[in-house]
Design brief:
By secondary structure, the protein is an alpha/beta fold. It has nine helices and eight strands. The protein has one domain (7-218): Rossmann fold, CATH 3.40.50. The protein is 47% helix and 18% strand. The strands form two sheets. Strands 2-6-1-7-8 form a five-stranded parallel beta sheet. A hairpin with a 2-residue loop joins strand 4 (78-83) and strand 5. Helix 1 (19-30) packs across helix 9 and helix 7 crosses helix 8. The two termini are 32 Å apart. The structure holds 2'-deoxycytidine-5'-monophosphate (DC). Residues 15, 37-38, 41-42, 98, 101-102, 105, 131-133, 182, 186 line the site of 2'-deoxycytidine-5'-monophosphate.
Length: 225
Amino acid sequence: MSASLPVVITIDGPSGAGKGTLSQMLAAHTGYHLLDSGALYRLVALAALNSDADLNDEQQIAQIASTLDVVFQVDSHGTRILLAGLDVTAAIRQESVGMCASQIAAYPAVRSALLERQREFATLPGLIADGRDMGTTVFPKAQAKIFLTASAEARAERRYQQLIAKGESVDMGSLIKDIKERDERDSNRTVSPLRPAVDAVVIDSTSMTIDQVFVKMLAVIGRDL
Ligand code: DC
């Protein structure tokens, strides 16, 4: 008798399309584990920024990626992320860290250093894997693949509302510029560029609410509300 394997559902797409929120909703609904792969790239970026590392030195950054001392502490309030024992849950969400993450994510050696670490998240009963290359590279045999996208303007507007709610002052024009710049870099890198897997279902959330997208995703993975 063969033991059952974990189910893997991949959610890929550009930043600001709603992947994070929807992946959390799907994980709560299915009882599956959650992999926020962007957090891993952000952690490498933060660790590099906090050290004397040269961001242009691929091997040095890959070394940081392969020795990353990270713990994801999951409880009823969400996930706390510890880097070398320090809580960096908020620090990795800064715009500057996101930009640096996008830069170091283009290094093939960094991506391969993080590959096995990501695959280890696939344990029973299953995994919701959120990222850019979950369906194409990390979990090519996933049972269901979703590519969630939205226009750059809609994504900038959502980010604007989040930052305003946090009391941060932001300029809409520079938000749109940053989003387009990051899309460009994530989509045009040579290794694991941001693009839908051939067998992914593409959902454009530009004019949809989170709840509407959630219902559509449940239909894709064959679950009831
Ligand atoms: O999803 P996010 O904004 O937290 O991701 C931060 C950066 O990490 C993003 O600009 C691209 C990169 N990333 C990646 O290259 N591959 C992934 N699977 C996840 C994120």
